[in-house]
Amino acid sequence: MSWGSRPERKSLSRHGLVGLVLLGAVVALACVRGPARMDHFYRLQVDPPSSADSPPILDGVLVVDRFASDALLRGRPILFRRHEASSEIVPHAYRLWTDSPSLLVQAAVADHLRAAGVAQEVLVPAFDASPDWVLKGTLRRLEYVATRTGREAVVDLEVRVVRHPSRETLAIGRYHAERIAQDGDFEEVVKAFSLALGEALDSLHEDLRQAAMVRRPSP
């Protein structure tokens, strides 16, 4: 009986040795690669406008809709191009927005125009308010580009403001802004995004002011 048991013990020993070798290889590979990179999350933080309209330039309630965008801009990874001549848009593997950019821009627009006193109330559709005016927009670009002078944040919006329910257009425009990030960590790139968006929203505010003045009947 003892003779028949020896080959089985040898077979188990070989399998165990193979398992130890594979385990050692996996551990060695993990050590070479190092620890996995952690995800980092960022939000847009636009400074409030330097002045507010008093009285508001629009009567009633302005509702800011969610911005339309392409599939990449609906995702959370921050987008970039490796150089100015490149047409490839690359999603960052571990640097992410806190939410979809179309929602972050919607919130930033609503906050900025509210602080600017553009209308008696500036809301988003979640409040179920009956609008007197509706702002609709498309987010065309929100990316940074590695240029010779540094990392350049690019913001590009299309915006239309209409009377509700007549859909009469008050203002329509495209707002493009670029800012070079200061040297430093990635937070400087996010600051450049916020500054570029703030510049675009200041231009939008001025266009709304001019459009409202033209529309306002003469005394």
Question: What this model shows, in words?
Answer:
The structure is a single chain. With 219 residues, the protein is α/β, with parallel strands linked by helices. The protein folds into two domains: 36 residues; 176 residues, 3-Layer(aba) Sandwich (Rossmann fold). The protein contains four helices and eight strands. Strands 1, 2, 3, 4, 5, 6, 7 and 8 form an eight-stranded mixed sheet that branches. Helix 3 crosses helix 4. It is elongated. About 3% of the residues have low confidence.
Give the name of the CATH superfamily of the largest domain: ABC-type transport auxiliary lipoprotein component
Strand content: 25-35%
Helical region count? 4
User: What class do helices, strands and sheet pairing give?
Assistant: alpha/beta
Distance between the termini: 115 Å
Q: Encode the helix/strand succession as letters.
A: HEEHEEHEEEEH
Question: Major sheet, described briefly?
Answer: 8 strands, mixed
CATH topology of the largest domain, by name, is Rossmann fold
The unreliable regions are 25-30
State mean pLDDT (0 to 100 scale). Answer: 87
Proportion of residues in helical segments: 25-40%
CATH architecture of the largest domain: 3-Layer(aba) Sandwich
Count of separate structural domains = 2
CATH class of the largest domain, named Alpha Beta
Q: What is the radius of gyration computed over CA atoms, rounded to a whole number of angstroms?
A: 27 Å
Number of strands: 8
- Name the overall outline: elongated
